[in-house]
């Protein structure tokens, strides 16, 4: 059985891959869609039988996937920048207020820059105390007692 319009079939398959790409994470089906469209272009210029169309699609899919995925991922998603431990807080030494008691080894809560953060410390702190930030690890802030003489007025 011969397909009347193989180019139109491959265009439709390509559109289906593009639509599926929006629903499936991973940024892989996009390249199968590109390969299907290139196969449709090949069917327009050359009379290919079904076996040859599938072979062209397979080869183009692998070529597109392995050669363009890194480049296209950077274009559409961007480069991932490792911001390090203190990305949100530029540096330690900032002051914050304890909003929920910190009783080691349990975590408490502090308020810093208008936001509530999980907090840990090596000693206990009561609600309302002002403490100094030592470091930040993702959403967990390590705090310590303010040492007299380091506080600026």
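-> sequence recovered:
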């Amino acid at each position: 059985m011969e397909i009347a319009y193989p180019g139109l079939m491959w265009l439709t398959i390509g559109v289906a891959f593009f639509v599926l790409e929006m629903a499936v994470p991973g940024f892989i089906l996009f390249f199968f869609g590109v390969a299907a469209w290139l196969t449709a272009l090949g069917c327009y210029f050359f009379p290919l039988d079904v076996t040859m169309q599938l072979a062209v699609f397979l080869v183009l899919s692998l070529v597109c996937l392995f050669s363009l995925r890194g480049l296209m991922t950077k274009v559409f998603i961007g480069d991932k920048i490792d911001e390090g431990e203190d990305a949100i807080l530029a540096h330690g030494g900032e002051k914050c207020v304890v909003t929920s008691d910190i009783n080691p080894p349990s975590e408490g809560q502090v308020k810093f820059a208008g936001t509530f953060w999980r907090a840990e410390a090596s000693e206990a702190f009561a609600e309302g105390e002002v403490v100094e930030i030592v470091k930040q690890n993702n959403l967990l802030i390590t705090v310590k007692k303010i040492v007299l003489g380091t506080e600026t007025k």
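The first strand starts at residue 95 and ends at 100.
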